[in-house]
Amino acid sequence: MRVIESVESSVKNLSEYCTQLALQAKAASRVLVSLKGEVKVAWLRRSAELLRENLQAILQANRLDLEAAPGYGLTDAEIDRLRLDPVRIESIAAALEDIAALSEPIGQVIHSTVRPNGLVINKVRVPLGVVFFIYESRPNVTADAAAICVKAGNAVILRGGKEAIHSSQAIVDQLHAAARESGVPCDAVQLVETIDREAVGYFLQMPQYIDVAIPRGGESLIRRVTAEAEMPVIKHFNGNCHVYVDESADLRMALAILENSKCQRLGVCNATESLLVHVDIANEFLPLAGNMLESHGIEIRGCERTCELIPRAVPATEEDFATEFLGPIISVSVVPSVEDAIVHITRYGSGHTDAIVTHNLLAAQKFVAEVDSAAVMVNASTRFNDGGEFGLGAEIGISTDKFHARGPCGIEELTSYKYTVFGAGQTRK
Amino acid sequence: MRVIESVESSVKNLSEYCTQLALQAKAASRVLVSLKGEVKVAWLRRSAELLRENLQAILQANRLDLEAAPGYGLTDAEIDRLRLDPVRIESIAAALEDIAALSEPIGQVIHSTVRPNGLVINKVRVPLGVVFFIYESRPNVTADAAAICVKAGNAVILRGGKEAIHSSQAIVDQLHAAARESGVPCDAVQLVETIDREAVGYFLQMPQYIDVAIPRGGESLIRRVTAEAEMPVIKHFNGNCHVYVDESADLRMALAILENSKCQRLGVCNATESLLVHVDIANEFLPLAGNMLESHGIEIRGCERTCELIPRAVPATEEDFATEFLGPIISVSVVPSVEDAIVHITRYGSGHTDAIVTHNLLAAQKFVAEVDSAAVMVNASTRFNDGGEFGLGAEIGISTDKFHARGPCGIEELTSYKYTVFGAGQTRK
Asked: Is residue A85 domain-shared with residue A176, that is, in the same domain?
């Protein structure tokens, strides 16, 4: 076990340790800026091979985490997400190969203009620099995040949940072995090897070395990072997602979309937490919806009209409408119009994902134009707001910010740009 | 004089005043999201007309500012930038018409994908929301910033330098009159009508209403805003810009680019502050450069070799190389190679604008790839890093950030995007 125990006894050492990682990351990021794409591809492919070849070492490290998990008070669902097996390690390796196959982003000319004076102005994609990524106890995320950050030309400092630290170390060991073989600097991927929570604070105070902080996980973590970070933050906040069933909706379609949005996976950010139903179809739709939701064991907290139409529904409070349940509960409200649905979503929603089910084109256009969310769905499940489903190839998360990156964050969202201007001696008039 | 004197005697009132402006801006921004482009165009054109029709009222307000200017200790150059005359007001009006003529940005589909399951995923340009813009005592910027923010669908809170407040009020009066006629909400453009510096702090604490803060002006202002702001900030920091003259440069071209970069305007962010010269051409180039710079009254602070070759040069300190002089001083260093020029720029530069003069393609490619600045010029003046020169139509400033917006910030940089997903009942597998 390499966790730096001694570091935790001394704030000075911890501060020095974090600064050293940050400095190394910055130095690696300077190399990555002009590293050829084929070197990154070779690294990703060799990493995938080494993960497969060193399956047993990774599983053994994972066993250490699993043995410690009850001591950390993890739930069964959390322990399941922590667990690795040969199938899961194969899917981690395959994901690295998928990222290797994506086209090289760095140096791509995003836009080009020729000015009247002959200057050729290119807007060229460049890396952000150093990413500080804070995430849950999921070993697969360690590999994914490292791959996507480096593919985008960034060095990354990985701060995973302490419950997965041995698994993450075993995975990073393979990434480092592949880096040594392929010519990627090892410091392009660094794992924070202390579980001391103070470490996060030190990193957040180094805007001179770290270009962006990306926290993923609980709301309190994200609030802490946002408050403390001296560099930009890409936030992955709540998903209080809505399905609005318009008066013109096909009720079978509405039922299928609601079932998929709410019941397919309860604990994810793009799961629906609230159902809005147009008053003119409430009589017909809500009893059907009630039966379907109850068949999945979902508790219904509804407005007055909902409670009349679904006998087992309980009255919803103001707070219920503002809550991301991440579990087997849904809030339901009957609304008089699409305008009122939009007002409700603007008031209680979190700007993540909201869907309308409708056959009315004007209602769809209005909903799409006025709902201010990262993704607005028309006749499709909220569960589609996802980098893979959007075809981005890979994602580091789903941003609820409007600044820099919104919605699924893939490789492009981990880059910036610069302007290159080619002249033949032009001077400004 | 409408400056709210009474507000300044009461922090509670000031806080309420700022909150009221922010709330009004947020409400206006909701209207702007789906305002038709032609309404914004009509507003901009009518604003231009009203500025011309009300020339005398604006000049009279400007006289109040000019009379007060010596009391604020403004320099002659600052007073000149504050001064309005019929020609300058015409150019403000013409700029509004130019912005009116730009294509409508909001609703534009930036990217579109059709997924294998038939979902049509559009990435659509949307406004950021509310912009809080803090700027210098330049009345023309009041009109420009209002126009570009609203064209991008944002409400703006304008906090201009106190020395220009009467001129800015007179201009905003015309924008409001045009808004009433054309159907743009008046609160889309609000001027902070108190000169109390505390007001800035209140606005920076309202991330729930204000989506981005854009400070322009001195470094201390920008540092304060960055430290206090609870919303994203687009920073316009130092321009410690370089011209590097490579061994293969055409010396006449190099001299012309240096003269334009350094001497055309001394006090602007894209003016050059430092000259780097390859050792193999220093003997030939530096005496020429010395004569040219001295003919413009520029003081030369150089390395040892520079001082040998330019008799009137004085020795440069470490700090000189890190300084944005914004005046008639230049630092000069002889470097052994393009690599060393890049190392020098990485160490002392501010990531704003850096130029290479060369006939060597590999040197140009290396410089462009490795200099991490918003704009990298090849055989062109650093003075070209400008929204107008880049063809953006208008700019609110030049960002030194890498996050969200880099380099000249035009209308697109004041927008975000959302994903709209159109299906026919798709659910996720």
From this structure: yes
A376/B420 touch (CB, cutoff 8 Å), yes or no = yes
pLDDT exceeds cutoff 90 at A164: yes
**Contact B212/A at CB under 8 A:** yes
If we measure between CA atoms, which residue out of A157, A196, A165 comes closest to residue A5? Answer: A196
- Chain A residues touching residue B30 (CB < 8 angstroms): 346
How far apart are the C-alpha atoms of A407 and A413, rounded to whole Å? Answer: 10
Is residue A3 predicted with pLDDT exceeding 70? Answer: no
DSSP letter for each residue of A247-305 = TT--HHHHHHHHHHHHHS-TTSTTSEEEEEEEHHHHHHHHHHHHHHHHHTT-EEEE-HH
The reply to whether B398 falls in a domain is no
pLDDT above 70 (res A1):
no
User: Are B129 and A402 within 8 A, CB to CB?
Assistant: yes
Instruction: Please tell me whether residues B22 and B168 are part of one structural domain.
Output: yes
Domain assignment present for A399: no
In a shared domain, residues A261 and A310? yes
| 8 Å CB contact of A403 and B264 | no
Does position A78 have pLDDT exceeding 90, yes or no?
A: no
Domain containing B349: what range? Answer: 241-389
Of B286, B279, B283, B278, nearest to B255 by C-alpha is B286
Residues A379 and A412 reside in one and the same domain: no
The two three-digit tokens of residue A134, written as one number: 């804070």
Whether residues B45 and B179 fall in one domain: yes
Below-70 pLDDT ranges, chain B: 1-11
Q: Within a domain: residue B397?
A: no
B284 shares its domain with B341 = yes
The position carrying tokens 């007060």 is B68
B172 and B144 within one domain: yes
Q: Inform me whether the pLDDT recorded for A342 exceeds 70.
A: yes
What's chain A's average pLDDT?
94
Asked if B390 lies within 8 A of A260 by C-beta distance, the reply is no
In chain A, which residues have their Cβ closer than 8 Å to the Cβ of B393? none
Quote the pTM value: 0.92
Tell me, what amino acid is at B291?
Answer: N
Taking CB atoms and an 8 Å limit, are A427 and B256 in contact across chains? yes
Q: Which of A211, A374, A384 sits opposite B119 (nearest CB)?
A: A384
Q: Look at residues B180, B162, B148 and name the one whose alpha carbon lies nearest to residue B405.
A: B148
A 359-388 near B (Cβ less than 8 A): 364, 368-370, 372-381, 383-385
Interchain contact, B426 vs A381, CB within 8 Å: yes
pLDDT at residue A7 in the model: 44
Kindly state whether residues B107 and B52 are assigned to the same domain: yes
Q: How many domains does chain A have?
A: 2
Q: Write out pLDDT tens, residues B233-284.
A: 998 888 999 999 999 999 999 999 999 999 999 989 999 999 999 999 999 9
The reported pLDDT for the residue numbered B236 is: 85
Question: Given CA atoms A220, A221, A227, A232 in this order, what sign does their dihedral have?
Answer: negative
Q: Each residue of A311-329: pLDDT tens digit?
A: 999 999 999 999 999 999 9
Q: Higher-confidence residue: A271 or A136?
A: A271
Q: What is the CATH number of the domain that holds A295?
A: 3.40.309.10
The answer to whether the CB atoms of A374 and B212 lie below 8 A apart is no
Domain-embedded: residue B39 = yes
Provide the CATH number for the domain around residue A162. Answer: 3.40.605.10
